[in-house]
Amino acid sequence: MSNTEILIKELVEKHGKCRNSLMPVLQGIVAKERFLSEEAMKKVAEFMDISAADVYGTASFYTFLDTVPRGRNVIRVCQTISCDMAGKDEIINAIEAALKIKVGETTHDGNFSLLKANCMGWCHEGPVMLINDDVYTKLTPQTALEALEKYVVSTNN
Question: How many Å apart are CA 124 and CA 137, to the nearest integer?
Fold first, then answer.
């Protein structure tokens, strides 16, 4: 049994086989492996006795359930109209220039992936970005880049 299969088996045992358990199982896989591989989605379907199409449909619908490999640190910049009006494009431009990647890409060293995301629930504090699970609000290009520095240091230790 592969490490992925062991992880899925443990998650299904923990959360159960009912349809309502699918999200926590998928979230557990992403937390451990940083994305949902095709193999993982097939095994989830097998272990939970549901269709692979149902698993893939759920995985591809939710922004935070990545179905492609991402960097160690995933940057998600809110793309709602509130954040757009507050200057999210300047934030994205600064990050792209600093990391030398475009939205949807990962740095060559695998440290960062840059993505856009729909509403994060911080519309009154925009522009907003998440780096992994950490929320950064009321960003300027400078404060966004300062936030990134914390992750460069932490991954190089």
Answer: 9
The strand pair at 73-78 and 112-117 is best described as parallel
DSSP 3-state assignment of 135? strand
Q: Are 75 and 129 in contact (CB under 8 A)?
A: yes
| CA distance linking residue 31 with residue 79, whole number of Å | 23
CATH topology of domain 73-156: Glutaredoxin (3.40.30)
Element holding 78 (H helix, E strand): strand 73-78
Spatial CB neighbours of 41, under 8 Å, sequence gap ≥ 6? 52, 55, 56, 59, 67
Residue 27 CB coordination number (10 Å): 16
Please name the residue that has the structure tokens 């792209």: 96
Identity of residue 76: R
pTM, whole model, 2 decimals? Answer: 0.81
What tens-digit pLDDT sequence spans the chain (157 residues)?
Answer: 899 999 999 999 999 999 999 999 999 999 899 899 999 999 999 999 999 999 999 998 888 898 999 999 999 999 999 999 999 999 999 999 999 999 999 999 999 999 999 888 898 999 999 999 899 999 999 999 999 999 985 445 4
